[in-house]
Amino acid sequence: MVAITSPAFKENARTALADPGLQKALGTAKGAFLQRRAQAVANLPEFEQLRDIGRDIKNHTLANLDFYLEAYEAKVKAAGGQVHWCSTADDARAAVLEICRKANARTVTKGKSMISEELGINAHLEAHGIRPVETDLGEYILQLRQEHPSHIIAPAFHLNREDWEADFRRLHTDLPPDRVFAERRDILAEARTKLREKFLQADVGITGANFLIAETGSSVIVTNEGNGDLTQTLPRVHIALASIEKVVPTLEDATSLLRLLARSATGQDFSVYTTFSTGARRPADLDGPEEYHVVLIDNGRSNMLGTEFQEMLRCIRCAACMNHCPVYGAIGGHAYGWVYPGPMGSVLTPSLIGIEKTGMLPNASTFCGKCESVCPVKIPLPKMMRHWREREFERHLTPATQRSNLALWGWFARRPALYRAATRAANAALGLLGRGKGSFHSLPLAGGWTAGRDLPVPEGGTFMARYAKEQRRR
Amino acid sequence: MTKEAILGAIRRGLKRGPLPADQQAMLGGRLATHPRHLIPSRSRLPRPDQVALFIRNVEKEFGTVERVPNAEAVPAAIADYLAAQNLPSRFPMAPHPELTAIPWSERPLLEIEQRRAEATDQVSLQHGYAGIAETGTLMLPSAPERPTTLNLLAETEMVVLRASRIVGAYEEAWDRLRAESRDERSGGFMPRNIMFVTGPSRSADIEQTLELGAHGPRRLHIILIDDDPAALPMGEATAPPPVAVPGGPAAPGD
C-alpha cells in the first residue's frame, strides 16, 4: 500500500507551495483542463440532463448492488472468465499474485489503474520476483522516478518537460547520451520504443476498469494512448482490477455515463479508445488473452453504503473536481498524502483509511462549491466534507485550541445580543487601530491568518448594523 | 466465503436482506430490456448530414477519411494513400469476406496478407463494423475475421467502412450488434473484445499538451465506401430515391 502522509498535510502543503518546479508545473497545466471541459460541455446542450441521468443510474445500481454483482459474475463465467471476490487489499494482492504465479509470469505490463495504487500491487509483485511495468506514459515515468501519481487521470501532473528529459537521459542508458529532445514528441517516441519491447515480453497484463456491465459480463477501459489495449490484448493472461461500485446494469447505462466521462475528464467528446472486454479468447480468434480474470475488490466500499458517504460511490473518477479545485491547484496532489487527491480524495480517503489519519483533508477546503458544480454525477462533495468535520469533532480528533475556540464562538453565537455587541466593539477597535492604514499586515492572535494575506481595516458598522439600517430605509 | 461476506456486507449497509423475488424479476427485466436514456439530438439528422457529421468528427479528432464510390475503387485509393505517405505496400489485412472480395489483383503491387498484426508491421487494414456519427467513432468488435491487433500495433491503421454502416448514436450501434452477432461461448452477443476508436492514439501526459502517436497508431485513415444512395451528399444522390433504406435516418424515439 502507498505510504500514508495525510497526517502531515500542513507540512506537505507548505513544502508544495515553496517548490518552484511543482508551482511551475501547476501553472502550466492550470486552465488547460478547465477550458477543454467548458468547450465540450458547451457543445452538448443535453449535458445537464445527462448529469441527472448519470446520478440516477449510479443510485439505482448502488441500491441493488448485490443483485447486479451476482448477475455480472454469472455473465463473466458464461463468457469463459473468472471472478475473484476480495474483501480486503490483502485478499486482492494475494489473488493477483496467485494468477501471475500460475501463469509463470516474469514480466507483467500494467494499464493505468488507481485501484492498483490503492492496493500497492507493484510492490507486492516485486517482492515476489515478478516485474511490473507501467505502460501509461505518465505512470511509466513515475515508476522510473519511484513516485506515485499526483492526479487520477494525469499522473505526472507535477512534472515539467525538463524532468522528463532528465529522467530519460538518466535511466535509458543504452541510448546515446547526447541525443536531442527538440519536441515533446521526441520524448513520447522514446517511451513508445522502450515500452513496445515490454508489451511483447509480458506474460500477464493488468488493467483497471472504468465500468463493469452486468448485462454482458464486460469490463470497460478508457484510454487515449492505447497502452491499456496493448496490455490486455498481447499477454496470455488478462487481469482486470475493479472495485465493487464499478458495476452498472446495461450497455445503455454505461453509454450514458461514457458521454459524461471524457467530457468531464479531458474535455474530449469521447476518449480515443473505449474498450469492452468480455471473457477469454474465443476458439477461432487470432489474438487476445487465453485467460480473463476479474479481481473484484471491496476494500472498504461496502462500509460506505447506508452512511452519509454512500453517494461518494457514484464517483466515475473523471478528476473534474480536482481540476477545478483552488486548493489542488495551489498544492498539487502529493500533499494530500495518499492515493486519491483533491475534493474526491478528501471525502474518499477518510472513508477508506480512517478519519484519524486524514482529518486535515476535509478541512482543506474553502467550500467554494466548484467541485460539486462540475461533478458529472452530482456528488455533494462539500456537504460530505462537512460530515467528516462533524465526525472528527464528535470523536475529539480536532486539536484542543480549535475545539476551545469553536466552543467560545458557539457560546457567543447562541447569545445574539452579546454576539452583536462583541462584534460591534471589535469592529470599532479594529477601525480605530487601523485608521488611515487600509489594511493590517499583522495582528495579535491572528498571526496565522495574516501570515499569508492582509486583513482589510473595517469600514462603517458591522454587517448586522448595516443590514438593520437598510431594512429601516425601506 | 469471500463472495458471501461481500454480499452480506452490502446488504447490511443497505439495511435489508437479499432482494425479494418480485424485485429481482423487475431488475432482471431491466437487464433484458436495457432501456435507452436520453440520446443527444446532434446525430438525429438526414442520412447525408449524418455521414457528413461522422466525417467531420473523425477529422476533428485528427483522423482522415477518403470517400470512394464502390469496393472496386478501394485498391487504388489505398495504393495512392500509401504512396503519398511513403509507406510500404505490404501489410496485414483482416480476413473479412467484405475485404477479401475486393478486387485487389487490379493493384498487383499491393502485398496483402490475411492475418493478425505483428509488432513489425508498419501498416494494417481493418474491417469497420460500424461508424458512430455522434463523435466520429469506429466500432470494431473482435472476431476471427476482425483481429484486435490490427487496431493497435501498426503506426498507420487503415479501416474500410461502408457508409450504410454509419449510425447516429452509440445506442444504434449496440442494437445492430445485438441483432447481428451471436457468441457461441457465452450464448450472448458480445464478442471477446469491442474497441470504440475515435482518432489516432495520443497522450497529453507531458505538460498536458497533446501529442499524437502514443502506443497505438499515429495515423487513422478511413476509406468510406458510398454504398448507401440515401447517404450521398445532396445533389449526388441517384435513383432509387433516399427512402426505405435499411439503417436509414434515426427517427425521434428511435
Automatic annotation (TrEMBL), chain A:
Keywords: 4Fe-4S, Iron, Iron-sulfur, Metal-binding. PROSITE patterns: 4FE4S_FER_1, 4FE4S_FER_2. Residues 305-336 form the 4Fe-4S ferredoxin-type domain. InterPro entries: 4Fe4S_Fe-S-bd, 4Fe4S_Fe_S_CS, FTHF_cligase-like_sf, LUD_dom, LutB/LldF, NagB/RpiA_transferase-like. It comes from the Bacteria. It holds the Pfam family LUD_dom. The keyword Iron applies. This is Iron-sulfur cluster-binding protein. The lineage of its organism: Bacteria, Pseudomonadati, Pseudomonadota, Alphaproteobacteria, Acetobacterales.
From TrEMBL, chain B:
InterPro entries: FTHF_cligase-like_sf (IPR024185), LUD_dom (IPR003741), NagB/RpiA_transferase-like (IPR037171). Residues 232-254 are annotated as: Disordered. Residues 245-254 have a biased composition (Low complexity). Signal peptide: none annotated. Residues 53-225 form the LUD domain. This is Lactate utilization protein. It holds the Pfam family LUD_dom. It comes from Belnapia arida.
